[in-house]
Automatic annotation (TrEMBL):
Subcellular location: Cell envelope
UniProt xrefs under Gene3D superfamilies: 3.40.50.2300
Main location (coarse class): other
Any one of the GO CC terms: cell envelope
Family according to the record: Belongs to the bacterial solute-binding protein 2 family.
Record's keyword terms, sorted: Signal
Name this polypeptide is given: Periplasmic binding protein/LacI transcriptional regulator
Organism: Sediminispirochaeta smaragdinae (strain DSM 11293 / JCM 15392 / SEBR 4228) (Spirochaeta smaragdinae)
CDD domains: PBP1_ABC_sugar_binding-like (cd01536)
Length: 324
């Protein structure tokens, strides 16, 4: 294995926290020092959604006998994510899986790893224009389009809409927003009145959405583009009691979001199968490294949850099944 001894020395010297004061590194699965080592770099290891991805990555590690390092900043921090990737390159890991929330900063790191002979795949967030070998995740623009169509149906084709995102400038957010806009453009009586970039701190996020709702008393629809804003948006509508007039459609199957659907505050949410976004990169990198099998991108799909099937997903959650 490439530079395995150096990797182990680095791990011993720097310990479990090796890149940034707020970042975490967590190793899992195989104990064999000769096992294939794959580092999975996620953009925010502190959020609940990321833990579902992690569970998929660790399941693949166990299945194939790989050493998998789950690393990344706590709270989105591109500089720290770059540091984690740099450390993995220096350590000479066998493979890298990266969620790319900032192509300008991370594409050069992906290319650097590839040029160093380390195969790289992306997951959850794509890296267009990079040398990555494959992408495992949702077609984000299509998911935004489906979201917009569902929202328009709940709004009966008329009304004002706010779009919210934790970071409206991020490539994943722009892709989803483009999809929502494309769908809503098919309804001439629907108007997008505001795009709110909330930031990622929970109270700040909630306040930004609450203030946007207060500033738009005649609002008819709310499109939230990620898991955290979907939870916050449903919570704001539930507390304000406006969910009978403001139709809310979001993303991901977080427990709070499912509860908000059950309560009627959120009308629908779309899953991107985060478990498979962790499982597939590790599995396919392992097979590529050990057998040379060609890598190809895989779409993890779009799954809808609304009042008609929310009880099914709440039961799965109670049974301990990963849903995300």
């Amino acid at each position: 294995m490439r530079k395995k001894t150096l990797f182990l020395v680095l791990m011993l010297c720097f310990g479990i926290l090796i890149a940034g004061a707020n970042g975490t590194q967590e190793a899992g699965s195989a104990s064999d020092s000769d096992a294939i080592t794959i580092t999975v770099v996620y953009h925010d290891t502190g959020i609940e959604f990321g833990q579902v991805i992690k569970s998929g990555a660790m399941a693949a590690a166990k299945e194939f006998g790989a050493n998998v390092n789950w690393v990344g900043p706590i709270g989105i921090n591109v500089d720290e994510q770059v540091n984690f990737i740099e450390n993995a390159i220096t350590a000479g890991v066998d493979g890298l899986a990266i969620s790319n929330v900032n192509a300008e900063a991370l594409n050069p790191m992906i290319d650097k790893a590839m040029d160093a002979g380390i195969p790289v795949v992306t997951f959850n967030s794509e890296a267009p224009g990079s040398k990555r070998l494959a992408f495992y995740g949702q077609d984000l623009q299509q998911s935004g389009y489906v979201q917009g169509q569902i929202l328009a149906e709940y709004m009966k084709g008329t009304g004002k809409v706010i779009i919210t995102s934790g970071d409206a400038s991020a490539s994943w957010s722009q892709d989803r927003e483009a999809g929502v806009r494309k769908a809503l453009a098919e309804y001439p009586d629907i108007e997008i009145v505001q795009v709110v970039s909330t930031g990622w701190e929970e109270q700040q996020m909630y306040a930004a959405i609450e203030n946007a709702l207060l500033a738009n008393p005649d609002l008819g629809g709310l499109a939230t583009l990620g898991a955290p804003t979907t939870m916050a948006g449903g919570r704001a509508l539930l507390r304000s009691g406006r969910f009978d007039k403001v139709m809310h459609v979001g993303h991901d199957f977080m427990p709070e979001t499912l509860d908000n659907i059950k309560a009627g505050a959120t009308k629908a949410t779309l899953s991107q199968n985060p478990y498979m976004q962790g499982y597939l990169p590790v599995k396919n990198l392992y097979l590529y490294i050990t057998t040379g099998v060609k890598l190809k991108s895989e779409d993890t799909g779009i799954v809808r949850c609304d009042a008609s099937n929310v009880d099914t997903y709440l039961q799965k959650l109670e049974d301990g099944e990963p849903i995300g």
